Amino acid sequence: MGIVVQKYGGTSVADPERIKAVAEHVAFTRSHGNDVVVVVSAMGKTTDNLISLANQVSSTHPGRELDMLLTTGERISMALVCMALADIGIDAVSFTGSQVGIITDTVHTKAKILEVKGDRLREALAAGKVAVVAGFQGVSTDREITTLGRGGSDTTAVALAAAVNADVCEIYTDVTGVFSSDPRIVPQARKLQRLDFEEMLEMAGAGSKVLALRSVEFARNHNVPLHVRSSFTWEHGTWVLDMSTINAQQSSKENAMEDPIISGVVHETGEAKVTVFGVADKPGISAALFEPLADANVNVDMIVQNTSKDGITDISFTVPKADLAAALKIVNTVAGELGAAGVTHDEAVAKISLVGAGMKTSPGVAAKMFRVLADAGVNIEMISTSTIRVSVVVGAANTEKAMRTLHTAFGLDSGQAYSAPLPERK
Amino acid sequence: MGIVVQKYGGTSVADPERIKAVAEHVAFTRSHGNDVVVVVSAMGKTTDNLISLANQVSSTHPGRELDMLLTTGERISMALVCMALADIGIDAVSFTGSQVGIITDTVHTKAKILEVKGDRLREALAAGKVAVVAGFQGVSTDREITTLGRGGSDTTAVALAAAVNADVCEIYTDVTGVFSSDPRIVPQARKLQRLDFEEMLEMAGAGSKVLALRSVEFARNHNVPLHVRSSFTWEHGTWVLDMSTINAQQSSKENAMEDPIISGVVHETGEAKVTVFGVADKPGISAALFEPLADANVNVDMIVQNTSKDGITDISFTVPKADLAAALKIVNTVAGELGAAGVTHDEAVAKISLVGAGMKTSPGVAAKMFRVLADAGVNIEMISTSTIRVSVVVGAANTEKAMRTLHTAFGLDSGQAYSAPLPERK
Questions:
Q1: What is the CATH T-level fold of the domain B3-254, as seen in this structure?
Q2: Which terminal residue of chain A has fewer beta carbons within 10 Å of its beta carbon, N or C?
Q3: Which of B217, B187, B160 has its CA nearest to residue B37?
């Protein structure tokens, strides 16, 4: 007997038939002796349709009103899932983010969770009920309804899993798991059986859309095992967990060297590159540039500063395309104040990343990556690395060629990425 | 400077263009120095679509979940109206029923308002903002979201108008006012300039769909003047108010005898007739029959008991067709216990009512009505009267003939129903 949190994305509850299938699967999970907490997204394109309506009535979308508008989508889903459960004899009760005690800060449209009270959730489970919770939303410290931004429903699910100390947080989606690359671009991409939190974090940060970065961070910080799987096939998907414990347990049985160095090739085309030319290379320049961007909630991703020449340098960084206009406005002002030579930007770029825990112990991954891209005639515009990731920015037109070449060159096209058994399902 | 509450029904906010038109009208009302509280219904067919979804996922609709589902419709409308107002420079803030402090009992899907706190509403108005409130919903004493049932948005508007002591509660709809009869059935029906609360109450109770009965009751009890008008033409519509004060004020100027005896001919085809035959005429029989129906929330409308013969009588009553199955189940059980001879029912009936404050002082209205119908060959199945209303149940096939004949016979086809001036608009 354990507690399972199941999060169903928009495609998983897109229509009445899908909602009934979800109810059946919840019943199935309960029949195996588990308490179940269900977290739902808005049905299919509901959120997009609501945003479209907002655009049609107004060019001004006050955050408080936008949050009120968008939170209705998940409320519709949760009520319908409860009804579908009632129809097959499962006692269920729905909760909004507010009702379940997801307390956030006051930043509308991208609020952060401060606390999960979860009293009503625990009471519902103790009463033998399935709890169905609206994802993506909370209530702020000043008692207004807030939304958690992109991927917010995943974050809701993980936060609730942590709050009730769930055995697993299952993320149901329209793909069967996390892949070594995007199968739409790299046809030979394979489903990964499991990944370490760190790898998943880097993949999400590098552009993998399967799991939102924030939800993986939350899962790692609270050690909530994730299971990413399909609500269309219900087959086992990809586990994301703390591999260090598992590898230690299994060291006698397995040879860690069988693991490939690289887990995946990830791309991100939603960012634009901004370059500030000819700024003085002196203390405080970066702060002067990036503090106002942070204050404006612009998410700066890669930052590269050239080696300075004659005390003058160039600074390049990437921002989400949606934030580009806001970023340029700020950067142009700051660049003027700093006496910079100019500001340029380029939207036709893609970030390609290699991610793998194995690269910690395998030197030369970055060098090999650069060589492979050079041989393929792909020019590299920016580079950034972490201990288990190497990212490059290239021209958008080179995206497919770069990904496929790297996928093959790093041995991801065939064979098992991981041969370790799955954790026992309770 | 006054306070105007404006309620916009589903057709008035059916699409982005209508929502923008509403915003313009709110701006217009403010430009005349009024504080404005807007109450919105769900857009167009939203509520019907949500009910359809519920039916598709389940045959079981727990009231709590149904209320959560349906309240999303008004929330979408209110957020969009606020955005449309922001777009034309009007500072607006939205409130759910819960946020504005509409406290209800715990009867899901048809909750009754116990109290309107309205603190946030008054604060918003004091801060110079337009308040936009989701109609049809409240929060129960046990803190669950509830809905107010049919016509709930009208009730919300009137309750808020009473809470802020508004000068008028304007009900915007897709017709230009209250008519002397349904223009789809009686082409010669005329728009009434004004009506007394009592008349509107009787008309709503007798089947007029323009205003919900509960909202008129609330308006009468709190003396909130109503103005029913069109959001498509924005022309002046029908005022519903306490005529006794106005008539007293204007007695020198006007001859009350100019008012016609009858204000309107109203029909109701949504009810069915149930007859219990051959029950003993003794104390407690009616209670035994109607108490369980009340307990099951079946709204019994007309009740007629025949003069008993040999201590045996028949009891007929009407119920909404939607409640007929539930009613018959109960009535059959009770009839068995009471030793009744049998139970029959008939769905092919219509209730036709004459309503008019003038009939208080004009004897013989009922007699004339029966004569007119007899001359037209319409058989009367049931009769019930109040001081300002006479209702008959006839076969559904006679609906049009009965209404048109009565409309003509009671002098409603031409001339001004009321010649009194409209109240001054502040």
A1: Carbamate kinase (3.40.1160)
A2: N
A3: B160
